[in-house]
Specification:
heterodimer; A: alpha+beta; Beta-Lactamase; Heat Shock Protein 90; six-stranded antiparallel beta sheet; five-stranded antiparallel beta sheet; B: alpha/beta; Rossmann fold; six-stranded parallel beta sheet; six-stranded mixed beta sheet; 12 helices
Chain lengths: 619, 326
């Protein structure tokens, strides 16, 4: 019991698990199919059982009809035999005094009229002497009449007519070696001899073949159903397999059947279920029995059973196929919609959302498509917004260079003019003009490295005059990198830092070296100074956003340069800083090697400009 | 998903197979099986002694849906004549053979090759080498012994040595040899003397019998076969009332004539093999072999009755002795 419960729980959990994993289509198909199959199965079993019962009823009815017909024929036949006996007794024997007349003439007449059904008619005295017989035949030497069963039976109940079971007639000699099977109808009679009444015996031997033929007609078909006849004690009178029964090759349940009342009964005989119908023949008490083995009944139904199986299987097949089609028509649009969502999930931000199928699914598809479009728009807006924000921040920072630097430079120029150093003032102004020209660069963010270097030179030339040449600047730029792209104004802030934090406070001569070279596919520009340097912890903080320290200069910090480079070229690029206290600092700019061309500029700056242009057009 | 497709495919396949099978069975259910043909070859096929056996054959043929071919034959002059008849049936495509061989030395090897695909059953008597083919018949040694015992009962009630003449029939048949052996074994135990022993059952036998009896009159005649019994009865009747008292006849037989003369008192005691069963069971066994090709027909022994005038009409005896269908 416990094991059964465990098994049941296991089965339930297995089904639950699989139910979770199963697709909608499979669930629909399985559910519909199970319900359909169960219904059809139940319906088929019910109808088949009903059909079988009806068939059984019809068979019983048919058997009863057959028995009734056979019984009527048999009763007619037996009544005829009794009439012969009655006629012989009441019309002949009772009216004849044996001392005066014989019975032979009338007896022969009666025999001749019925000889098809008769073997003989004989009359005996009560001590077994033959009085008369028809046809005329020689009596056997010692037939021992008084010990024959028919004689004993009739003597036992003299008021009745007795029918014997079939036996071989043992009365008359037949030189053609013939022995007849007969059914004896015997009765005690009153013989008159010399006016005295004596007891006698009248025997009418019916030809057994007549009874046999009569019952054979009920056993004409070749099926295993048959009809047999027995007396009230169960002694077989006729059976289609009589000889087999006599030689013990076949068994019949006749003794049990003798106790059955008229009607239909089911019995189990020798391991076989049989349907028995019994009909009692009036007066004789004989019973006609119809036997229908259930196996023969089932054999008859075999074709029907196969037809039912075929029909059910066909219906199941059709149902499954229909379920498949119906479920597919329901589920396919859902699956397509699900596929679109999966595509979206996988990272495709512009998925082709399926719109179709039933009204509900179509509505879902449309809603989802609208949602995706809305989301795309929102994301675009966010990108543009962020870009704008960064740009405005940059612009604000860039704009911070000008007033401070311009003030100092102009102050220096004023100072030069006052000191009548006009040539220096001209040089200073020229450098300043060049610096602004490059700064502007017609609004572009991406410029040639050559221009960036030139901008750095201009700036350093101005600063050197301002700082009265307390430091030296050395540009060591490889020629080949000059035509590559860079974000503008990235060297100048580094130089500014090198001046303010490196060499301004030095006692000796400050040295700033700007190196530009190519390694592999990438471009490197280093700004090195021999200034104060800084400890490692400070180096780590320099490129983190929230630790920006502003003491001097334009305020355009390293972090700003670093972010601008990464914004344009991606995270692998930007600044690297190496520094050691009292030895100096090296800041390395790492850029991708992109040759300066219209396509490159378009590619690097295009997306933002396109967006801006689109927005302007919308407005 | 793939697994689901496999299950779905399997389910479809099973349903299609079920539908196909059901359609086949439905169409097949209406068909009737063609009956097998079984030929029966016995000597002198219309002899009355075969009536009961033929009834048995016909009943079994009806019960097992067999086409019975009861071959007409007269008395065989030789076993070759019978073999020719057997080969004719084999050539005719018979599927089963039930044969009463008239000789035990028939060269069954030749039959063995021709009848490889045919179910063969011998009735009444085996052939040499014994045990190759199944045999349906009575215990012939037992018949001889039973007959011997009946004679011994008579001997025990009378004085002096009894002279005995034996009509031992066709001694080329193992059955008749066994019956003779059986009777000899029993007679050896009593004070009897076998005066003559006549083989065969042809027309000359009547003269031989007459001559032998005249030369050496015997108290008891024993006939080991149906024909021999009828022959002896005819001989005794031929002698008139004197014949009835001159010697006692003990025989083996089942014909109506033999039973009739038992009833009339001409035959003292008769051993009757159950030939209905012999016919029925031999046919049933051959039908079984044909139906279930892997099984082989088995030898079957049938019973016999010992009847005399007193128990001839016993309820049980008359059921076996007298054919029901007239």
């Amino acid at each position: 019991m416990k094991k059964m419960k465990e098994l049941y729980l296991k089965l339930i959990s297995y089904m639950k698990m699989h139910a979770k994993m199963r697709s909608i289509q499979m669930t629909i198909v399985i559910s519909f199919t199970v319900i359909s199959v169960c219904t059809m199965g139940l319906l088929s079993v019910t109808l088949y059982s009903r059909f079988v019962k009806q068939m059984q009823g019809m068979m019983v009815e048919s058997a009863e009809q057959l028995l009734n017909q056979t019984s009527i024929k048999l009763e007619t036949y037996l009544r005829g035999m009794r009439r012969i006996s009655d006629a012989m007794y009441y019309s002949v024997i009772k009216n004849t005094d044996l001392a005066v007349d014989t019975l032979d003439a009338e007896m022969n007449l009666l025999y001749e009229a019925n000889k098809d059904n008769l073997i003989s008619i004989a009359c005996y005295t009560n001590d077994g002497r033959l009085v008369a017989a028809a046809p005329v035949a020689t009596e056997k030497e010692n037939p021992d009449i008084t010990n024959q069963k028919w004689f004993i039976d009739a003597m036992g109940q003299m008021e009745n007519i007795h029918f014997s079971t079939p036996h071989v007639q043992n009365l008359f000699d037949n030189t053609s070696y013939r022995y007849y099977w007969v059914v004896s109808l015997s009765r005690a009679v009153e013989l008159t001899d010399h006016g005295n009444s004596t007891l006698g015996m009248l025997l009418v031997d019916m030809n057994y073949s007549s009874i046999e033929q009569l019952l054979q007609k009920a056993n004409t078909d070749n099926s295993s159903e048959y009809v047999y006849l027995m007396d009230s004690n169960g002694e077989i009178i006729y059976h289609p397999k009589q000889k087999l029964i006599y030689t013990s090759l076949f068994e019949e349940n006749n003794l049990a059947a003798a106790d059955y009342p008229d009607g239909s009964h089911q019995e189990n005989f020798n391991g076989e279920r049989r349907l028995i119908t019994v009909k009692t023949v009036s007066y004789t008490g004989w019973k006609i029995v119809s036997v229908i083995p259930m196996s023969s009944f089932n054999m008859g139904l075999y074709g029907t059973r196969m037809f039912v199986i075929m029909l059910v299987a066909l219906l199941i097949l059709a149902t499954i196929i229909l379920n498949q089609l119906v479920s597919a028509s329901i589920v396919k649009p859902l699956q397509k919609l699900n596929g679109s969502v999966k595509e979206w999930e996988a990272g495709n931000l512009n998925p082709d959302i399926y719109v179709g199928g039933t009204m509900e699914v179509e509505h879902l598809g449309k809603t989802l498509r609208a949602t995706v479009e809305q989301l795309q728009q929102l994301m675009k807006d966010i990108v543009v917004e962020q870009e704008e924000k960064r740009k405005s921040e940059l612009d604000a920072l860039q704009s911070q260079i000008n007033p401070h630097f311009l003030y100092n430079t102009l102050d220096s120029i004023v100072w030069m003019i006052e000191g009548e150093r006009y040539e220096d003032a001209v040089f200073m102004i020229t450098q300043l003009a060049s610096l602004f020209r490059i700064s502007l660069s017609r609004g572009r963010t991406i410029i040639r490295i050559e221009d960036e270097i030139k901008h750095a030179r201009n700036y350093m030339n101005i600063q050197k005059i301002r700082y009265k040449n307390i430091f030296t600047v050395d540009f060591r730029i490889e020629e080949e990198i000059l035509s590559y792209c860079t974000v503008k104004l990235i060297i100048q802030p580094l130089l500014e830092n090198a001046i303010y934090y490196g060499v301004e406070c030095m006692d000796g001569d400050g040295e700033i070296v700007v190196k530009g070279y190519r390694r592999g596919e990438d471009i490197y520009i280093e700004v090195c100074d021999n200034g104060l340097g800084m400890p490692g912890e400070m180096v780590e903080q320099l490129l983190t956003e929230n630790n920006r320290v502003r003491k001097h200069g334009s305020g355009v910090g390293l972090i700003n340069v670093h972010n601008r480079i990464r914004l344009r070229f991606g995270s692998p690029y930007g600044l690297e800083i190496e520094s050691c206290p009292d030895e100096g600092t090296m800041v390395r700019i790492h850029l991708p090697g992109i040759l300066y061309s219209a396509e490159a500029i378009e590619q690097l700056e295009g997306s933002r400009e396109t967006q801006l242009r689109e927005e302007e057009a919308d407005e | 998903m793939n697994r689901n497709k496999i299950y779905f495919g399997l389910l479809m396949l099973i349903l299609v197979i079920v539908i196909g099978g059901a359609v086949y069975e439905m169409l097949d259910a209406g068909k009737e099986e063609a009956p097998y043909t079984i030929s029966v070859i016995v000597e002198d096929s219309n002899n009355d002694r075969w009536i009961a056996m033929r009834q048995g054959l016909e009943q079994a043929a009806q019960d097992h849906n067999i086409n019975l071919n009861y071959v007409f034959s007269g008395e065989f002059d030789s076993v070759e004549e019978e073999m020719e008849l057997i080969f004719r049936e084999l050539r005719g495509g018979t599927e089963g053979l039930i044969i009463q061989m008239v000789s035990d030395d028939v060269g069954m090897e030749a039959l063995g090759e021709s009848a490889a695909q045919t179910a063969v059953m011998l009735i009444e008597s085996d052939v040499e080498p014994q045990g190759v083919y199944p045999v349906t018949g009575p215990d012939n040694m037992g018949i001889g012994t039973a007959l011997g015992r009946e004679i011994m009962k008579e001997i025990e009630t009378s004085d002096g040595q009894k002279k005995i003449g034996i009509l031992c029939g066709n001694q080329k048949q193992i059955a008749m040899q066994q019956r003779l052996d059986g009777i000899r074994q029993v007679l050896a135990q009593g004070s009897t003397e076998i005066m003559w022993l006549l083989e065969g059952s042809n027309e000359d036998m009547a003269r031989e019998l007459s001559a032998s009896d005249q030369e050496n009159h015997v108290d008891i005649i024993i006939a080991l076969g149906n024909d021999e019994t009828e022959l002896a009865v005819d001989y005794l009747i031929g002698k008139g009332e004197e014949g009835k008292g001159s010697c006692l006849l003990y025989g083996v037989g089942c014909s109506e004539k033999a039973v009739y003369y038992l009833d009339k008192g001409w035959i003292k005691s008769l051993v009757v093999p159950n030939e209905f069963n012999m016919g029925y069971l031999s046919m049933e066994e051959v039908a079984r072999q044909l139906k279930y090709r892997l099984s082989r027909a088995e030898s079957v022994e049938v019973d016999y009755l010992v009847v005399d005038q007193t128990n001839l009409y016993d309820e049980e005896n008359q059921k076996i002795l007298f054919p029901i269908v007239q």
